[in-house]
Write a structure and sequence with these properties.
- 50% of the residues lie in helices and 11% in strands.
- It has two domains: 61 residues, Orthogonal Bundle (Helix Hairpins), CATH 1.10.287.990; 113 residues, Iron/manganese superoxide dismutase, C-terminal domain (minor pseudopilin epsh fold).
- α1 runs antiparallel to α2.
- The longest helix is centred in the first third of the chain and has 32 residues.
- Bound molecules: manganese (II) ion.
Amino acid sequence: MSYSLPELSYDYSALEPHISARIMELHHSKHHQAYVTGANGALEAMAEARETGAFANINRLEKDLAFHLGGHINHSIFWTNLHPDGGGAPEGELAAAIDEFFGSIDGFKAHFTAASMGIQGSGWGVLSWDPIGKQMIIQQLFDQQGNTAQGTIPLLQLDMWEHAFYLDYVNVKADYVAAFWNIVNWENVAARLEAARSGASASLLIS
Ligand code: MN
């Protein structure tokens, strides 16, 4: 199976003024597309290696697959985590879970913001479901594939790569993160939490 770039459910300009159409167009059609192409390329090169028995480059290929497939999955989740009618406050089970695991929505937002802004280098702030502890946790995802626990299920991700904000916010990450809260699709996060909790852990809800 080869991967393909998912369509967005909103126009590139729909998230303005929080994220510009220019960033959205580049981010989706160029950056995300490059991860899709890279993941497909890695799989093809692995198939060729099996065919020929030549595994000299296998370490590089495994790293390429983790990076590019990670990028494809991360962006596919991110687009659905955002919506032009987003923002406001979470409701229902999600709101209750945030209170249970983080004390309050303000505590959660402060923790998620600090974790996202504190990433050293490129990466993502991630709210995850931990199926072992049966709780929500906040993680820092490095690059596209590192520093998160195996098996945790992403619910809400914020892209902290410079390509995600630099054209709009230059180096002022705090303004970018503050703007993000205005377009969070809490219904999507709630649906992900429900799926993760019910054991539908294989479902990333991206297709
Ligand atoms: Mn990105």
